[in-house]
Amino acid sequence: MTRLLLLGVSHHSAPVELRERLDFSRAGLDTALATLADRHDIGEAVVLSTCNRAEVYTSCAEIDRTRDRLTRFLSDFHELPPGALTPHLYERADRAAVQHLFRVAAGLDSLVVGEPQILGQVKDAFATASSQAHTGALLNRLFHVAFTVGKRVRSETAVGKGAVSVSYAAVSLAHKIFGSLDGLNVLLLGAGEMGKLTALNLRSHHVGRIAIASRTRSRAEALAAEMAGDAVPWSSVESELATSDILITVTGSPEPILSRADLEAAMAARRYRPLFIIDIAVPRDVHPAAGQIEQVFLYNIDDLQTIVDDNMSKRRAEIARAEAIVDEEVTRFAAWLRSRGAVPTVVALRQRFERIRRAELARLQPKMASLPPDALARVDEITRLVVEKLLHTPTEQLKALPDHEAVETYADALRRLFDLPADDEEPDGRTTPADGEHRAPGTNDAARHDTSKVGT
Questions:
Q1: Which is nearest to 413 in space by CA: 434, 392, 394, 429?
Q2: Does 248 lie in the same domain as 149?
Q3: Domain boundary pick from 156, 176, 206
Q4: How confident is the model at residue 450 (pLDDT cuts 50, 70, 90)?
Q5: Residues 141, 174: one domain?
Q6: Which of 136, 156, 176 is the last residue of a domain?
Q7: 130 inside domain
Q8: Quick one: three-class SS letters along 252-276?
Q9: Phi-psi region of 356 (alpha: psi -120 to 50; beta: other; left: phi over 0)
Q10: Which end of the chain, N or C, is more open, meaning fewer C-beta atoms within 10 Å of its C-beta?
Q11: pLDDT for position 452
Q12: Is 319 within the bounds of a domain?
């Protein structure tokens, strides 16, 4: 029976230092998938890698064996000793893995609940795996349903509306002011963590140049190298203001470093093009009076936090609705997954009954030789319908069992009672390779990557 297994780490289970080590983007997802398939003999696989998670989704026949292979893969690929990795790994199988992915796609498992970027990242991860022929019927269906879940949550709830962190609030406000952030120039004064996070969020929206100034030049240069920005002298702040569209200030100055007069001079030099100022410093870096200048949009950390708190209170009521959508889709997918697990036994059972029916008709052929052709056809039809009636209820009951263990228990009982071939045997007794085992050249890919049965 094909099983579904997820192994990974996220911000829930691992510190940022470990998550950085598990970043697949450095070597490339295609390289990771090829390594996983070639060296560790894994069937279908999708690797999801973001700044807050690294997860591998696979189809398998044996959970324990595949878990060991995935752990070894993560350890070898990222050159991490197993002891540093395993305490932070989480595992989800079958229904639990389905629920986890659906919650991820819906933004419910994110550091910032409801953030929209994760759905695109899930789509990109699947596209990479699919384009490299590492997915088949199970993961194709799983991820396409996950996309549907993400879209439903975004369209049917407000869980993704409004900023829920200071940096997201800043980006949201900038969007309202400028419409598009493409190509805008950002000036960051100070090398604080919050300023860095806000600037990085802005860069993810395709802003142009990010200039960084600090009274300690070496700190500005170090941060600029990390953010792919430009370190500029503190003495050039005035000229940078004339060309920057967004100003982020996060210095440790006990007094404002920019007065109303400073900003009035800057606005005159820039011909009063809009200037968006995010003053995250405490005490504030920009004098409050600067906010009165035409086309200057000044927000401090309290302004942004108020927006965050208001949006969080609105989202809490929507989270329950989003979780209900996830549960609904999980139940539907789990039913399909269970029925899929019962298919080999159902097929074998029907084949056995059909062989018996045909054998009995052949045995009775001499006694029915005098019957006209239409009567013979009627006998064939009646016996076929009797078999269908006899098999209908056990087939439906088998598909409706609540979990994989129950399906396997009942399937095993049916195989024993009716002397059916095992799932890895053909009706004539020949064996077929189990999931994850080596096959003859070409047969593994054909079986594993067949997408013609998606949705069945």
A1: 394
A2: no
A3: 156
A4: very low
A5: no
A6: 156
A7: yes
A8: CCCCCCECHHHHHHHHHHCCCCCEE
A9: alpha
A10: C
A11: 35
A12: no
Domain region containing 344: 338-448
Domain presence at residue 248: yes
Provide the annotated active-site residues: 51
**136 and 47, same structural domain?**
yes
Q: Is the pLDDT of residue 36 over 60?
A: yes
- pLDDT tens-digit map of 336-358: 887 766 667 777 888 888 898 99
Long-range contacts made by residues 313-320, C-beta under 8 angstroms, separation at least 24?
Answer: 314/158, 314/161, 314/162, 315/113, 315/114, 315/158, 315/159, 315/161, 315/162, 315/164, 318/114, 318/157, 318/158, 318/159, 319/108, 319/113, 319/114, 319/159
In a domain, 277, yes or no: yes
- My answer on whether omega of the bond before 283 falls inside 30° of 0, hence cis, is yes
Could you give the CA distance from residue 386 to residue 351 in angstroms, rounded to a whole number? Answer: 14
- Nearest C-alpha neighbor of 397 from the set 406, 388, 405: 406
pTM over 0.70: no
Spatial contact of 253 and 233, defined as CB atoms under 8 Å apart? no
Residues 200 and 280 in one domain: yes
